[in-house]
Write a structure and sequence with these properties.
- There is one protein chain.
- This protein is mainly alpha-helical.
- The chain folds into three domains: about 60 residues, no CATH class; about 80 residues; about 170 residues, hpI Integrase, Chain A (Orthogonal Bundle), CATH 1.10.443.10.
- It is built from 16 helices and eight strands.
- A hairpin with a 4-residue loop joins strand 3 and strand 4.
- Helix 3 runs antiparallel to helix 4 and helix 8 packs across helix 13.
- The longest helix is centred in the middle third of the chain and has 20 residues.
Length: about 375
């Protein structure tokens, strides 16, 4: 019989009943893992009955794997004679790092490498201080102390807390624990970047970039509305010049949609693509001055320098081009369903929630308001009859 991969993630910790969950029983019973008493040379099971602890001898024998397995089987048989409550408690022996490490192994198999690394980046700073806490001891105050110590803003705190909550939710889904100790913890609202580029700002940015490599990268962001990470990943094999599209088979939402991400190229974007294909016959099309693919940190630093050089560009990051693309398209009268498709969304909810910034287009909205009011009919002459 194939071993359950979810249990395999926690290694020795999750061997069938080698560390069984605490089980609450009707009448106030609770069970911990089986354990060996050397002085009695026997395996025991501890239960709690109406507030009193009881130690049940399961089998006499040495502290070996063979007898441990036998004790576990007897423990299961013992529990089978009792009616298990619908609200079991969490294992008292389980540590926080068991859950986090197990989830990371699950993530390594099920998620993209970038997603796994994203989770790991948060857990690597949480585990050193709180990893040895028992799950039953983990409190809101521990998580909030970590968030404060790290100096996270609201957006980063939202993501950090979300990463922890996801790990414990996974443990609940896989029935390693009965409930998450931080399920009730609320995340702060993320700060939505409320920024749209003007034509003048676009020209200023391009004029301030000295190297052609970064200028090409920024131009691609502006012309396609892609996620910054998508532009970085485009290779010669992803390009269909005949249809004028990029086809990304590995992308952010591939597991959700099950479909490739298709990026439709306008004439300028297609001309840029053809030029880069002539320069790079294989590998990524968009590369830095050293011929290497752009990294997330390198792009971040370049935009940081641009904001320092031009303070009026405050708030401008790589993703600003994506929200600007969506807003400009809507202003030009492109239907929102079409814009959502161009952005790679399955519906219009994400478009309007995170990217559309028509509130910045004052003149456009004033014109729309004028169109929304039907023209007044000529007033009838007043009745002058006596």
């Amino acid at each position: 019989m194939k071993k359950d991969p979810a249990k395999r993630h926690l290694g020795e910790v999750w061997q069938t009943l080698a560390g069984p969950p605490v089980v609450s029983l009707t009448g106030g019973f609770a069970m911990k893992k089986v354990w060996h008493r050397g002085s009695e040379n026997g395996w025991y099971l501890t239960i709690r009955e109406n507030g009193h602890r009881r130690q049940l001898l399961l089998v006499k024998g040495p502290n070996t794997r063979e007898f441990r397995k036998k004790a576990e089987e007897l423990a299961i048989a013992e529990l089978a004679t009792r009616k298990v409550d619908d609200c079991p408690s969490n294992p008292s022996w389980l540590l926080v790092h068991h859950v986090l490490d197990g989830f990371l192994k699950h993530s390594l198999e099920e998620h993209e490498p970038k997603t796994h690394d994203w989770y790991k980046g948060f857990f690597d700073t949480f585990e050193p201080k709180y990893g040895k806490l028992r799950v039953v001891q983990l409190k809101k105050q521990h998580v909030m102390a970590w968030v404060t110590a790290r100096g996270f803003n609201d957006t980063s705190a939202n993501r950090a807390i979300g990463a922890l909550k996801r790990a414990f939710a996974w443990a609940v889904e896989e029935e390693h624990i009965s409930r998450s100790p931080i399920d009730h913890l609320r995340k702060p609202r993320t700060v939505v970047r409320d920024r749209v580029l003007t034509p003048e700002e676009r020209q200023l940015i391009l004029a301030s970039i000295r190297d052609a490599q970064f200028r090409d990268y920024v131009s691609a962001l502006s012309l396609t509305g892609c996620r910054p990470g998508e532009v970085v990943c485009v290779t010669r094999d992803d390009v269909d010049l005949e249809q004028g599209i990029w086809v990304l088979r590995k992308h952010k939402t591939v597991k959700k949609t099950g479909k490739p991400r298709i990026i439709y190229l306008c004439p300028d974007a297609l001309a840029l693509t053809k030029r880069l294909i002539a320069q790079h016959t294989d590998g990524p099309l968009f590369r830095n001055t050293r011929g290497r693919p752009w990294t997330k940190n390198a792009v971040r630093l370049r935009f940081t320098k641009l904001r320092k050089l031009h303070p009026e560009l405050k708030g401008v990051v790589a993703y600003t081009y994506r929200s600007s693309f969506a807003t400009d398209a809507l202003e030009q009268g492109v239907p929102d369903a079409t814009v959502a498709t161009l952005m790679g969304h399955t519906n219009t909810n994400t478009l309007h929630r995170f990217y559309a910034r028509l509130s910045h287009k004052v003149e456009h909205l004033k014109e729309a308001a004028a169109k929304a009011i039907p023209p007044a009919k000529d007033a009838a002459p007043p009745d002058t009859a006596p």
